[in-house]
Design brief:
Four copies of one chain form a homotetramer.
Chain A lengths: L3 H6 L7 H19 L6 H8 L3 H7 L3 H24 L5 H17 L2 H8 L6 H28 L9 H21 L9 H11 L4
Helix pairs in contact in A: 2-3, 2-5, 2-7, 3-4, 5-6, 5-8, 6-8, 6-9, 6-10, 7-9, 8-9, 9-10
The structure holds a DNA duplex (21 and 21 nucleotides).
Chain lengths: 206, 206, 206, 206
Amino acid sequence: MPTLSSARRDPSRSGTQAGKRAAISRAAVKVFARRGFFNAQVADVARAAGIAAGTVYLYFRSKDEILVSIFERTMEEGISESRLALEGVTDPVERLRCLARLHLRRLGRDRDLAVVFQVELRQSTKFIEQLSSSQLRTYLGQLRDAIAHGQASGAFAAQINPTLAAKALFGALDEMATNWILSTRRYDLASEADDVVDLFVNGLAT
Amino acid sequence: MPTLSSARRDPSRSGTQAGKRAAISRAAVKVFARRGFFNAQVADVARAAGIAAGTVYLYFRSKDEILVSIFERTMEEGISESRLALEGVTDPVERLRCLARLHLRRLGRDRDLAVVFQVELRQSTKFIEQLSSSQLRTYLGQLRDAIAHGQASGAFAAQINPTLAAKALFGALDEMATNWILSTRRYDLASEADDVVDLFVNGLAT
Amino acid sequence: MPTLSSARRDPSRSGTQAGKRAAISRAAVKVFARRGFFNAQVADVARAAGIAAGTVYLYFRSKDEILVSIFERTMEEGISESRLALEGVTDPVERLRCLARLHLRRLGRDRDLAVVFQVELRQSTKFIEQLSSSQLRTYLGQLRDAIAHGQASGAFAAQINPTLAAKALFGALDEMATNWILSTRRYDLASEADDVVDLFVNGLAT
Amino acid sequence: MPTLSSARRDPSRSGTQAGKRAAISRAAVKVFARRGFFNAQVADVARAAGIAAGTVYLYFRSKDEILVSIFERTMEEGISESRLALEGVTDPVERLRCLARLHLRRLGRDRDLAVVFQVELRQSTKFIEQLSSSQLRTYLGQLRDAIAHGQASGAFAAQINPTLAAKALFGALDEMATNWILSTRRYDLASEADDVVDLFVNGLAT
DNA sequence: TATGAATGAGCCTTCATTCAT
DNA sequence: AATGAATGAAGGCTCATTCAT
């Protein structure tokens, strides 16, 4: 049984303000993934979270904000997880592998989250514009920095535009994830990370 | 100036059944791109096409079908354009370049179409599942065949999974397109095609 | 093969103005009975009549008018048929039997017509008011006259209000017809005519 | 003056779930009678009930269901009212009189309700089939039982089919009601009950 | 903080009718 | 006389959001 102080430290425990928010956000992942963002009703999310419909609005300004919160919460976790994982890894290729594995592992671990990320979050320019300009930029920055670092160390070709390469790598991983959720086969998404990184590092050419 | 008979052969001329359909579909690209699919009303599309709202339903079963028709029409054109362009190109790298350029050129030429493709068409699993299983599969097949052909000729490494590489390349190009429409800068999208292909062919490694 | 002159005499033969009208009206009976007046589209009626949708409006001012025409056509036929049949019948009870049998035989012979009469024609006060004030009044008059005639001859009790009795008899027959079309059993509607008349003539009392 | 507890027992008081439903249903009687079911908008009903349009759908699944609820509510009341009134009445003729009077009194008391019952509820087979197979059957059963009871007591002729006689009587009363609402004269509908029953009991014959 | 009943704006679609051919 | 493509008005229903309790 958690002590009061430990409960306060874990914001996902309901009871705290931030905890309730996270709990609703987590319930929304399930609901949005299963019914789609537009079909899902706020009341569905509330029911899944075990609260009344009106209560949602004590923690979120709108239905849209719930969706955005899923993105922000996950990206935040992902970015700091990546930062942590990269500590001590110096080999450029290993750094890329590390980021790619975390990316696909995070989505491959939670199919509902993957569906929300790969499909429901792409509803409209309204979201996409909003999202790109925030944590997604930071996340792409991590990829670009890893590549630039490899170029600085001489491991990666210097004439390549690291921003373009970062986008390309992100796009490739993103496509892996989208294919995975659309596929009826159940394979391990994370295992594709190394193949993708190998392809990017070595290229197609013999 | 087209003769009467050539005009009959061109289905984008209104007058023919298919011509009207295409005209409405083209009007819808503009409307959906500017207002978003959900915000756009069928009446807006009709007005843009210069017809009455009800007339839309003589050519489309539903609002959804209009969106799908945009995808199908463009993919159809794209696939046959690609097929045509590849004729006579034998060098594996050139084949990839050819496909990548056409992909980005098609979207870079028509920002509205690009917005619809990169954003509005990703509304929900409903669309995505439907689309992936059709022409998108064919399109990915063209990329995969180009890679497999390179492997057969010895130009590309045999141990690479051509399907995975095709998806990765598609994802990379897709990401370029999405970044382009979200960017406020107006740069030439198609010019990125070569850089992406170079990256895929040569890899990051020195 | 009908001669030209005989064809002219039969207005239900298409070719003449009145013939086309009757043909459309007959097609409408089928369509309205099967789909309901509101669900049925004018185009359905046109198709059933083997003509184009617009052509209907050369013979009818509106969809409503088609429905009314069914009523008028059938009532007209029914009234003159009744008049003819009553000629030479002098016994008051036989006169009632005659009218009742014709009423139920007409509907029992054509289930579609019965459905339109018993259900679709009762759409709204709009129709009912219109219809009651016309041929229905004439038809009720035939019943009332038959009863009044029986009273004059001393066969029927004089203190009974013949108008009320006529309405009651009509209502009873009407209910028989409605029950018949709603029943899943297929029994002979006309055979109930005598039972109803017997009941009205002799009463329940022993 | 009702006490608090008796108020709770009365479901027509708004406040309770059933009370709100009944209130909307009663408002709908007025609106449907005046404008016709098809012309009436759900918003009209809501306005008449003093609530917002959307609120109607918290108590009814559809516009159709409102119409059906009017039928069900009235039939329910009518059936139990009849049952109660028949208690202690043993004379067969009096029992018929009792049922007939209640039938016509109920409609004659509320012209709007009568219009809805005699006209708007006969919209289509959809309603009629649904309704006949429920409380209408029970109601016809009450008439049939009253007749059968008279036969058992020797007051009514045994060879008459009581079901047919019940339908005939119902049809006669129904026609009285329909004539009443269509008539521009304002006469007392209930006063016709005795005349109709007399006719059914004694017959036309002298 | 929590509830959940009430609100009311918003839109796709149908189809009777018209009219140019 | 006949066609059938085009019109455009009209309304039931949903559901995000509010607010009195």
